[in-house]
Amino acid sequence: MRKNLILYLMLILLAGAMPGFSQEKMEPQTQPVEQNVDAEEAPVISESNTAESDEAIRARVSNYLDQKAGQIPHYTFWERMRRIFHEFLYSGVERIFPMSWQSFLKSVIDIVFQIPLLIILLLLSFTFIVNVFIVTVVLVIVSYYKKARESYKERLNQRFEDVLTKYLFYDLSQEDVLKDLKQVKTTLGRDLLIDIFFNYQRNLSGEYRDRILELYDKMELFKISSRKMRSAHTYKRVKGIRELANMYPVGAKALIMKYVKDKNYMVRSEAQIAYAYLDEDTSFGFLNDMDQKLSAWVQLNILNYVKLHERNVPSFHHWIDSSNNDVQDFSIRMIDYFQQSENSEHLIRKMNHPNEQTRGYVYRAIRHLNLFEGKVPAKERYEDETIANKISILKIIRDLGDEGDFSFLIGVLKNENIQLKMQAVEAFYQMGESGRAFLKEYSESEDFDLKRFVEHIKDQRN
């Protein structure tokens, strides 16, 4: 009984400490007296009376708590935020504005907070102002950073060019140059120095170029270029490969080799071009296991490097049976370009290739290499070919044909396709007097329209 009484008193005190209770005076209650009496008489009253008294006290406490529960303020989250924001604006007015303005501004704040829509507009306005302020600060910081960066780059660029000019054209020693350039420790400064070295080695030759490459090597800038190849950014990887290929030819080939089959098209293309540039023995070893696409741009650049440096090339029949169709096409084109007529057997065999473009390269190579042994197999393939490849076969007959091909060309003249008829007429015309005589006779007896084709062929403007 005594323990229960103490517990109820603690609940009452706790409720009185809650918001709403502290602002009201408790009405005088006779409960404490009764509780004392009960407490004093507790030892002598019966158990039934004790139970009844306990129930009565519980009921009275419960009724009291129910009455006070309605007076306790229950604030929602938004109401609390509203009060906090209201107090924040009040305190801001008191700190910022003079006394003469404070009364008016506080009344405006009170009016605004009485209308929910105005509160929303006020919050939006406040948010907008804060955002504008943040954006302005960010723009100012970024602008300042860019200007500082550009100024720093200009100073470094001028410094590097002065030092390199004195080194290349005057009497500044290499030790002094290295001592000066190694003082630049920043990433931006090192990248700028590599760019300057790259431009110098492209525009200089002979001893001057070698001296630039020697500086690049002794400063170990190739390590920075190697790290670029491992970057997550494609443009950095391409730039790293290009820097190594041009300024670190001694060790770049081994570093670049693993990127010739990279999944990234740009990285792979740059690595393939760089490897061909560094491949002094022109072994074209990277073609052996090539399972990625070999683009036309890469093929053109490889051919350009080989021509520019007048390098000896291997026999490309090694890759004519590659499982990579791009490598096959490249091999056929290289056989054609470098006049490797000893590979005629491999070319003729490729006439049965399922790819139309590959067969087209074969027909072109047969014509350019004057492979007479390829004329008959080409004629046998004529009926099953596409229009483009039929034209290529007719060009073979035009350049390599003789009177024995007249019957074949007559069959083409009876075709309704204008392009094919034009090629057949041109083939007759290019075979000399016998072909031209046949055209004249045939046009008078069989096909009067052939005269127009002949006149078109004679016209030097075509």
Automatic annotation (TrEMBL):
Keywords: Membrane, Signal, Transmembrane, Transmembrane helix. The keyword Transmembrane applies. InterPro entries: ARM-like (IPR011989), ARM-type_fold (IPR016024). The chain crosses the membrane at residues 117-145. Residues 1-22 form the signal peptide. It comes from the Bacteria. This is HEAT repeat protein. It comes from Mangrovibacterium diazotrophicum. The lineage of its organism: Bacteria, Pseudomonadati, Bacteroidota, Bacteroidia, Marinilabiliales.
